[in-house]
Amino acid sequence: MEKFIQTELSTWKLPIKKQIEHYINIVHNMGHKLSWNKAKEMVRESKKQEIWINDKYQVNILRGKNCDEYIHMDDLKGKCDYLSIKTIDKKPIHDWRELQQIKNELCGEDREALEIYPSEHRLVDTANQYHLWVLPKGLQIPFGFTHREIVTQEQTGGFQKSGQRAIKIKSKVSLQGRAT
């Protein structure tokens, strides 16, 4: 996977009227109606995003206060980031390592992120798109592993065998989590 570069959405280069019509058409294709004023607001909101692309992915990022509509704890408002991740070809993916790499490159290796599998009444599933909410630096998710452990060699799965593909990392880490 190549490094990300920052860019703009192609629609941002269109006249404002065309940008508004674009949002109205998107929502119409999803079976809903969108007023001109609401579409105009969506255009304005879209310009708060950072757009990053590489050979495989497009990532739209809302940082700090720009993602506060998704943050439901007052003490975290203005401190988190939101990543909307999709492949350039819009096909479904779910490669954990690549999502980890995207989070590391665009938000930092020292920040933790959440991918949420919500209750059905909060489900948003409108595209082959993946969402990460990135916590502020220094804040750890209050569950999960407390150590680092990585298998770097290819392992074939099977009965009572774990399967894993090979990975190149900066430093090898033993099963005890110590750099070697």
Question: Can I get a quick summary?
Answer:
The protein is of the alpha+beta class.
Structural description of this entry:
- With 180 residues, the chain is α+β, with helices and mostly antiparallel strands.
- The two termini are 26 Å apart.
- Helix 1 crosses helix 2 (36-46).
- Strand 2 (50-53) and strand 3 form a beta hairpin.
- The protein has helices at residues 16-29, 36-46, 96-107, and strands at residues 5-7, 50-53, 57-63, 81-87, 113-114, 130-134.
- The longest helix has 14 residues, at 16-29.
- The protein folds into 2 domains: 5-134, no CATH class; 147-180, no CATH class.
- It has 3 helices and 6 strands, in the order E-H-H-E-E-E-H-E-E.
- 21% of the residues lie in helices and 16% in strands.
- A 6-stranded antiparallel beta sheet has the order 1-2-3-4-6-5, with helices on one face.
- The relative contact order is 0.11.
Kindly report how far apart the N and C termini lie.
26 Å
Cα shape? globular
Total strands: the figure is: 6
Number of discrete helical segments = 3
Largest sheet: 6 strands, antiparallel
- Total domains: 2
Key phrases:
about 180 residues; alpha+beta; 3 helices; 6 strands; about 15% strand
